[in-house]
Description:
The chain has 404 residues and is of the alpha/beta class. 37% of the residues lie in helices and 17% in strands. It has helices at residues 42-56, 64-73, 81-102, 106-109, 129-142, 180-198, 214-223, 244-250, 264-272, 289-301, 316-328, 342-345, 373-379, 382-385, and strands at 4-12, 18-25, 31-35, 118-126, 146-151, 159-161, 176-178, 203-207, 231-233, 255-257, 278-279, 305-306, 335-336, 353-355, 358-360, 394-395, 401-402. The longest helix is centred in the N-terminal third of the chain and has 22 residues, at 81-102.
Amino acid sequence: MAKIKEIQTIRTRENGTWLFVKVITDQPGLYGIGSASDHYRAKTVQTAIETIAPLIIGREVSHIEDIWQSIYTSGYWRNDSVINTVQAGIDMALWDIKGKEAGMPVYQLLGGPCRSAVMCYAHASGDTLQELEDDIRRYMEEGYHVIRCQLGPYGGGGFLEADKAGFPKNHWPQTRAFDDEAYLENVPKMFAYLRDKLGFGPKLTHDVHEHLHPHNAVHLAKLLEPYRLFFLEDLLSPEQVNWYRLVRQQCVTPQAMGELFINPHEFLPLITERLIDYVRVRVSKGGGITNCRKIATLCEWFGVRTAWQEGGDNDPVNQMAAVHLDMASYSFGIQEENHFRAEEYDLFPGYAKLEGGYLYANDQPGLGIDIDEQKAHELFKPELATKSFFISEDRRSDGEIVRP
Length: 404
């Protein structure tokens, strides 16, 4: 049996926010790749991989579950976003190797396909209702059946400009403020407009991005019930998930939650009490294929579906890992789409093809995707990668930060 000989990291994208793991075996030419990208902590994750590598070098690559459990407890403290990402990158690479050894795609190793392709939802936005409608129609023409609708950036519809924000006289430097009541007023109006113009044919979603106070979040879910959303995403922050019980008591608006979850105990009660309808954990933040397939199985038993999180900071390798899980999971619901630039796709032979609102895997062994290290090196710009990245801050009129 092949053994782990070496673990390498490959950092790329112009700004250095993509990070990949390459697990090299003692068998000539046999290796696997996995995603360990973290837009905000790429260098930290890279160091963590290098720290953990000696623990598993020399082990048999086929012992995926044992290696996962070993890394999980290796630092005593567990369930943090960095170590989860380390685990995921290594785990994906090991599944990639196992598929190559077996001569079949990973989704075949997971039990075979439950579907022919992976349905995705698109991201439509506009600064005005007309612009948003036009963007939705563009995606509909491309073949998408499910489309997320946003008025501008996250929180759009809830921002007040300086002359209406009611700033205190000693307010901190900010040009606008987020206001719950404005959001409660404008987002239902947005969906009333869209349903009037588009009817109920297209399936529509919306991402609150945890901007509301909990009681207002419950109110919004009730207000949106007549517009029959496919789901309402991230209505509450992870710190306030107990409020989902009140949401469930008040309305039937489907709920999607979980892209900030890193500990299984955060989403376990939401699934087992059937308080949400879609789990949105990112595969690389949920511990990789090994752990996320367990999440998918748990979802199946409780009638919850998966909608693995992607987002603009994600990468084609993590996307492909999600596709393999989607193909083999009965509990699959929808997959978030992600577009990359042509020069970024060019790094990844075998990437998942996105056409007409569907992602298509391929029949290549393993994950079916590889990375061109020379092109990855050429794309990387060290001067851009020195920059630190932080999530953008929205604030209320008194300066209080809105937790994203």
